[in-house]
């Protein structure tokens, strides 16, 4: 006996309706996410549904795939890592502008969701926010003076 034969007809229609709504919602969500860089005229590798570009990152060492993307898409390209949008900047002048001149607009790099998942992540300089970043930077900065760096790596 078939499963659908014993379910009343209205429940079958309800099931099909819910399935159609779910599929439509997933399709719209996928399109919205994976057209983000395209809508902003930023080139990048084509994403695979539900994996983004992470599958190629898992199959090929990250430096090799990033070099390939750099050669294909230039110094600024967007890609997707497991549903998260990532912008890669390889232009030294633009990096300087982001990290030095407009630091106040790009200072908080770790999302609140990531902080809940990995509570130790914000405890280092690259992922700390606001006052915690300033405190850590004051502690770490004396170790990276030009004189100390020259002693570490003589030219």
Automatic annotation (TrEMBL):
Q: Give the molecular function GO annotations.
A: heme binding; iron ion binding; oxidoreductase activity, acting on paired donors, with incorporation or reduction of molecular oxygen; steroid hydroxylase activity
Signal peptide positions are: none
**Entry protein name:** Cytochrome P450
Ranges that cross the membrane: 6-28
**Which InterPro entries does this one have?**
Cyt_P450, Cyt_P450_sf, Cytochrome_P450_3A
- Keywords of the record: Heme, Iron, Membrane, Metal-binding, Monooxygenase, Oxidoreductase, Transmembrane, Transmembrane helix
Annotated family? Belongs to the cytochrome P450 family.
- Organism in which the protein naturally occurs: Medioppia subpectinata
Superkingdom of the source species: Eukaryota
């Amino acid at each position: 006996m078939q499963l659908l034969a014993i379910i009343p007809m209205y429940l079958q229609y309800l099931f099909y309706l819910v399935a159609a709504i779910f599929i439509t919602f997933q399709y719209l969500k996928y399109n919205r996410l994976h057209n983000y860089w395209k809508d902003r005229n930023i080139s990048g590798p084509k994403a695979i549904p539900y994996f983004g570009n992470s599958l190629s990152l898992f199959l090929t060492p990250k430096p090799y795939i990033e070099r390939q993307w750099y050669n294909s898409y230039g110094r600024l390209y967007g890609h997707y890592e497991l549903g998260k949008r990532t912008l890669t900047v390889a232009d030294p002048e633009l990096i300087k502008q982001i990290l030095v001149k407009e630091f106040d607009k790009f200072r908080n790099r770790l999302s609140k969701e990531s902080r809940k998942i990995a509570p130790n992540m914000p405890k280092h300089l690259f992922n700390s926010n606001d006052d915690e970043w300033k405190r850590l930077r004051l502690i770490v900065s004396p170790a990276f003076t030009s004189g100390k760096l020259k002693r570490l790596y003589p030219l």
